[in-house]
Amino acid sequence: MKLCFRPITPLLLFSLFFTLSLAANVTYDRRSLIIDGHRKLLISASIHYPRSVPAMWPGLVQTAKEGGVDVIETYVFWNGHELSPGNYYFGGRYDLVKFVKIVQQADMYMILRIGPFVAAEWYFGGVPVWLHYVPGTVFRTDNEPFKNYMQKFMIFIVNLMKQEKLFASQGGPIILAQVENEYGDYETVYGDGAKPYAMWAARMALSQNIGVPWIMCQQYDAPDPVINTCNSFYCDQFTPNSPNKPKIWTENWPGWFKTFGARDPHRPPEDVAFSVARFFQKGGSLHNYYMYHGGTNFGRTQGGPFITTSYDYDAPIDEYGLARLPKWGHLKELHKAIKLCEHALLNSEPTLLSLGPFQEADVFVDTSGACAAFIANMDDKNDKIVEFRNVSYHLPAWSVSILPDCKNVVFNTAKVGSQTSIAEMMPENLQSSEISPEKDFKALQWEFFVEKAGIWGEADFTRNGFVDHINTTKYTTDYLWYTTSLHVDENEEFSRKGIQPMLLVESKGHALHAFVNQKLQASASGNGTVSSFKFRSPISLKAGKNEIALLSMTVGLQNAGPFYEWVGAGLTSVMIEGFSNGTKDLSTYTWTYKIGLQGEHLSLYKAEGLNRVNWVKTSEPLKNQPLTWYKAIVDAPPGDEPIGLDMIHMGKGLAWLNGEEIGIYWPRKSSKNDECVHECDYRGKFSPNKCSTGCGEPTQRWYHVPRSWFKPSGNILVIFEEKGGDPTQIRFSRRKMSGVCALVSEDYPSFELESQYEDENESYKNKATVKLKCPINTRISSVKFASFGTPTGSCGSYTKGACHDPNSTSVVEKVCLNKNECAVELTQENFNKGLCSSATRKLAVEAVCS
User: Fold this and answer.
1) Cα 370 off chain centre by
2) Run of H or E including 15
3) Within 10 Å of residue 656's Cβ, how many Cβ atoms?
4) Which of 182, 506, 547, 697 is catalytic?
5) What is the pLDDT of residue 751?
6) For residue 615, how many other CB atoms are within 10 A of its CB?
7) CB atoms within 10 A of CB 340
């Protein structure tokens, strides 16, 4: 084959650049955004740039695009950029311009939610902590200091985008920008300052002249021309506050966040698809998944408090950057089906047809005669058969069928035909290969350093009584020592009889370790529902002077709610019961304070700080020792799969690799008594507690360590353990897709959507098909289960039904074995369709990828 290349001339280069950077005119009317005169039906995906790393960004954007996404959406994280007044940072994970340009290079649009308040389960809602300490400042109300700093940051970001020509009006990808965030829900609480602030924010944004529309989500009184938008699990019933504004859904939550010690929430793909289909059925034109990739709260960036380091969100792309199947695949097919209806949806008025008490159809016919229909069954218990245009259609409960030609169903939200992938965390022993001629691996050598419980170095200050934790640390650290001393008479009854007195502590949050005479006595914490806590625990006191050292800890910062910046943390009461003259109230004692840990102060997790203490070298490090720093030299795990740090055998603390902040680890278990499900019933409205798993298990066991943080060898892993664990059990785990499954019924729509309508004269043929695909560079090595007939169960637990074609496995093996991907059609040529003819037959397959 002869390949011909056209020479690149300066004229061609100019023409190419001009085409790529051509300014776009973005307007809107009641039906949709209009870009260069063309109406757009848009699918958007939230990916937060600082919750992943730059090396992941191109892959995340590409996976979203392959999933049928047109737009990438992100917040702008003020406190990640303005580290102190006027001191800006845009490096590493905070390289906003680079992220936007990656979206542009993928030929996708961008929604920039500048805020700059973002909530987002991000510490302090994205607002800099330092701003709270500017005299006279009150967040998010008609307050001059707050508005002044907010406007300065908004102008800085807008000008940065303009300098890089990133607004669509300049030829860039940004088609919408957002000011403020979900403020309408709190306006009544903020009182007289609320409405003036909201209107000021809108006017201030409009004055930036960015050339694209502004939006305000959950802002019911957003002034023209700012578009108010919806955030919820369902937005089909949302109506903009003006008949001239399009219906936009800025946050559809396809999952939910996790808090340490709580269950793992999941939202079924059937319900996510149902909500999206209903939105477009009822006039929506721009829909955004929050989140499409949740990512990781690296460092100490989580909000809540108590939000986990993982921000996976049960999103279509998981925390590690892998497509979550079947959710990603099911939504991809949904997007294809909706796009087939785009012209009719955006260029006609719908006709609503009632087909039953909970069944209805919306029919769209444009001027060319093109017809599309969405038929919905809102009954959350019962399947229904409805008559539409003299044809009978079976509708599963709580589902929508999409008919791009008003005749043929190409997609039903309840029928998941996309494959399920089996993702596993495969453990790898921590290894170190010191430079030597043999390059042999040897046993990992740990080094450790134990901190003193209480005041290290000079005390920061003393006070009678307690100070607020957050006001004292200003979130420069999670840790604050409260210390005092107590004299015990040798004649106290508990001293003579060996009875333990009781320590009673009350705290505004978030967690605490109690030490007496350098010994850990008790630990306690709040949770994601209630940050404050009380606890009562026996302690050991000796005759004479006793040193009481209480280590108070934050676990993220409040990120939302009215006047959230005033929510404090730290001790409010300390008492000891058991003395002969009654309970001793230590709350009024003189307390000495120390901010942070000695290891933090010395930067033991950074290369320049590693030699500032005398590490103790040992092949058997201290186990179950509180306040201990551990260090080891490790190699990168083999392969290219994403990596998680397995901390199941540790207590609570912080971790770093090569100075990069992995974040807070805390394998805190949820209650065994919580209500969890083995299989979720997708039918009916979703809430975060509906489909939880993980009861009695750690909320988070593995902690994402991006591949780009590793060197081939000589990586420095540093752990700070607060209360005690076994570092010899720490493992890296590779996240691998080890198998694939699918279960498809004969009545499932065909997903060959593109070819379906290439030839209008071709008769519709529904060929239900099981499609399997292994990760790149792997193949289907074996078929663990295959049954055509009436199989039941879910991936990993399929069972044969009363009806089963004995040739099922051989048929699937013939088509799929030793292939990266395959498609098995449910046809007479492949299977015995004489079996169980009275039942709806299915094909279930589980295969191994290697």
Assistant:
1) 39
2) helix 10-20
3) 21
4) 182
5) 47
6) 16
7) 21
What is the domain count for the chain?
4
Tens-place pLDDT, residues 253-264: 999 999 999 999
399 within domain boundaries? no
- Per-residue pLDDT averaged across 430-440, rounded? 51
C-alpha to C-alpha distances, 119 to 94, 264, 293, 557, 564, nearest whole angstrom: 17, 21, 17, 11, 10
Same domain, 339 and 231: yes
> What are the C-alpha distances in Å from 178 to residues 23, 163, 214, 309, 512?
20, 19, 5, 26, 39
Strand-pairing partners, residue 786, are 845
The last residue of a domain, from among 298, 327, 346: 346
Angle at 50 between CA 25 and CA 640, to 5 degrees: 110
Could you say which of 251, 333, 722, 846 is catalytic? 251
60 token code pair: 């995340």
User: Is residue 847 pLDDT above 90, yes or no?
Assistant: yes
Which helix (H) or strand (E) is 101 found in, with range?
helix 96-105
Instruction: Give CA–CA dist 388/354, Å, rounded.
Output: 10
Instruction: For residue 584, give the nearest of 553, 519, 539 by alpha carbon.
Output: 539
- For residue 782, give the amino acid letter: S
Yes or no: say if 212 and 193 are a contact pair by the CB < 8 Å rule: no
E strands present in 694-840:
702-705, 715-721, 731-745, 769-773, 780-789, 821-825
Domain check: are 434 and 536 in the same one?
no
709-733: pLDDT as tens digits: 999 999 999 999 999 999 999 999 9
Banded pLDDT at 433 (limits 50, 70, 90)? low
691 domain residue, yes or no = yes
H helices present in 574-649, as ranges = 598-601
CA pair distance 307, 259, nearest whole angstrom? 4
Sorting pLDDT into bands at 50, 70 and 90, what band is 271? very high
Over residues 519-547, the mean pLDDT reads 97
Is pTM beyond 0.85 here?
yes
- Alpha carbon 551 to its chain centroid, in Å, reads 30
Residue 605 CA to its chain's centroid (Å): 26
Could you give the angle at the alpha carbon of 571 between the alpha carbons of 570 and 576, nearest 5°?
A: 155
Single-letter code of the amino acid located at 319: E
Q: Which helix (H) or strand (E) holds 620?
A: none
721 assigned to active site: no
Contacts of 137 (CB under 8 A, 6+ apart): 131, 143, 145, 146, 149
Range scoring the smallest mean pLDDT among 239-243, 329-333, 701-705, 831-835: 831-835
Is-catalytic flag, 428? no
- Asked if the structure places residue 2 within a domain, the reply is no
User: What is each CA distance from 590 to 298, 369, 482, 511, 651, in whole angstroms?
Assistant: 37, 83, 10, 22, 31
Domain range for 812 is: 767-849
Angle at 766 between CA 764 and CA 767, to 5 degrees: 135
Contact 251, 276 (CB under 8 A): no
Domain boundary among 735, 758, 777: 735
**Dihedral of the CA atoms 449, 452, 453, 454 (nearest 10)?**
-140
CATH number of the domain where residue 540 is located: 2.60.120.260
Helix and strand numbers (H, E) in the chain are: 16, 46
User: CA–CA separation, 128 vs 476, rounded Å?
Assistant: 12
Identify whether residues 586 and 623 lie together within a single domain. Answer: no
The separation between CA 331 and the C-alpha centre of its own chain, rounded to angstroms, equals: 17
Q: Report d(CA 27, CA 212) in Å as an integer.
A: 7
Q: Are 25 and 37 in contact (CB under 8 A)?
A: yes
| pLDDT over threshold 50, residue 11 | no
d(CA 758, CA 744): 25
3-state secondary structure 321-338: CCECCCHHHHHHHHHHHH
C-alpha to C-alpha distance for 297 and 328, rounded to whole angstroms: 22
Residues 6+ apart with CB under 8 A from 72: 44, 45, 46, 47, 61, 64, 103, 108, 109, 110, 111
The pairing of beta strand 214-217 with beta strand 174-179: parallel
